[in-house]
C-alpha cells in the first residue's frame, strides 16, 4: 500500500513538472534566448563575409527542449523532476546548432560568442579535440543570455562542420545500443568514420588556406 502511494505521488510530480515546463511562461524565455543567439550569429556571419569574402556559417538551427525530454534528463542525472531543477541543472533547454564549412571557423565563432559582452560565459566542452566515446564531435559553448527584466537563461550552442553534422545526423539512424557483438562492431565502425571525418576536415581547411595564399600572391 505504501509503495503504491509513493508511486502515485511520484507520477503526479512527473506530470505536474511536465505541465509546468510546457507552459508558455516557462518556455518563452528560452525561445527568446534562441532567437537572440541566432540573430547575433547571423550578424557575425555578415561581418565575416564583408571582411573575408566568404561566410563562416552554413546554417543555424535552434530548438527548445520538450517537457518530456527535460524530465527524462533530470532523472538520468539523479535529480528530482522539478521546475527549479530544470532551470538550475539543465544547460541545454535552449539549444542552437551552428554548422560551418571549415574546422577553424567553428573555433573562431566560438571565441567571438564566448567573449561577446552581451552574453555571460559559463563553460566550453571541446568534443572535437576530445571526441565522445561514440565518436561524436562538436564544440559546445554554454552561455547565459539576457532575456529581459534582469532575467537570464542558459543556452547551449553547438558548433560543428558540415561533415561532423552529417555524422551526427546519420548516427541516429543506427540501432546499435547494447553489449552484443553486433553493437560493438557498429560502434567501432562509427568511431572509425568519425576519425576519417576529422582528417577530411583538416585536409579541406588546408586546401582552402593554400588557395587563399595563392590568391593573395596573385594580387
- Percent of sequence in beta strands: 15-25%
- How can the largest sheet be summarized? 5 strands, mixed
- In total, how many beta strands? 5
Low-confidence stretches: none
End-to-end span in angstroms? 84 Å
- The whole-angstrom Rg is 21 Å
> What is the chains' assembly state?
single chain
List SSEs in N-to-C order: HHEHHEHEEEHH
Overall pLDDT:
89
Dominant shape: flat
Helix content: 55-70%
Based on secondary structure, the structural category is alpha+beta
Strands of the biggest beta sheet: in what spatial order?
1-2-5-4-3
Count helical runs: 7
Description:
With 219 residues, the protein is of the alpha+beta class. The protein is 58% helix and 20% strand. The chain has seven helices and five strands. It has a five-stranded mixed sheet with strand order 1-2-5-4-3. Helix 1 (2-21) crosses helix 3 and helix 6 (162-171) packs antiparallel against helix 7. The chain starts with a helix and ends with a helix. The model has no long low-confidence stretch (mean pLDDT 89).
Structural descriptors:
alpha+beta, 7 helices, flat
Write the layout of secondary structure elements.
Layout: H1 2-21, H2 24-52, E1 57-64, H3 67-76, H4 83-89, E2 94-100, H5 103-114, E3 120-126, E4 139-148, E5 151-161, H6 162-171, H7 181-218
Describe this structure in a few short sentences.
With 219 residues, the protein is of the alpha+beta class.
